[in-house]
Amino acid sequence: MSANFRTPEGGRIDRSRPLGFRFDERSYQGFPGDTLASALLANGVHLVGRSFKYHRPRGILSAGADEPNALVAVRRDEARYTPNLRATQVELYQGLSAESQNRSPSLAFDIGAVNDRLSRFFPAGFYYKTFMWPRRAWERWYEPWIRAMAGLGRAPTLPDPDRYANRFAHCDVLVVGAGPAGLAAALSAAEAGARVILCDEQAGFGGSLLAESEAAIEGKSAAAWLAEAVALLAREPRVTLLPRTTAFGYFAYNMLGLAERLTEHLAEPDPALPRERLWQVRAREVVLAAGAIERPLVFPGNDRPGVMLADAARTYLDRYGVKCGSRAVVLRPRS
Q: Which CATH number is 164-288 given?
């Protein structure tokens, strides 16, 4: 399928190297720099999942870690099957195979959608009282059926064949988030002679600057300032840069846990390399520069396919060169 909603130019993608991928057994095309979400939107795919209980249709809402709807499973083989990944965080690579979850027999025709028609008979928690007797029937029929209808991704059944690494580290300043604020903090600390670790969950540093086309910083365009800042940090021997690294825990005495993804973005990972690395970092000072997320407006149908956060639509356009649709309705709340 062609990328009908890709802009002729622009974005931070490499248009010279098309990548083939599959979603629910259908073939599509994207480019290096895409996420699975941006590539699906470029191909006009908005329906990506079903809601947890009533199996209502769900589409891509955001462009980052705050995505609540586009949960997919990525399969390399039966042992390397990872469920419940956000499509907005899955980097595209050649041959990626992903599938939607919580639907049967297919995403477009889901028999579980009957729950939506019968929602008035399924109030919250009704199953805790309705299906408790007889006990044998609960264990044999009711519970497996309810779990199948309300579940998300399935867990892999084969042993994990990959290796995982672990590392302890110390630094003077640990900066979580490599947007403009995080980069500025890391630059200031490095100029003062501190040992700095800078981590960001995305593949590239820049945060909001990756989708910025008009702002200026210190008299330079956002793109120019970003390139210069990253180059300065990369040349500094006392600075450790960790892209594709999520800070998942902040513990006592400035101990933080970081999960670094080493091979998830590669089409053919080297089997000698670990899949992920756990960093346990003790820092003198910690700077949390994780940025901000847009709060969605609440209205009937606000979670249906085609409804998207304004900042996400802008990100897909400026960073990925993707038009999220052909016609747009912009809702602005009263001040």
A: 3.50.50.60
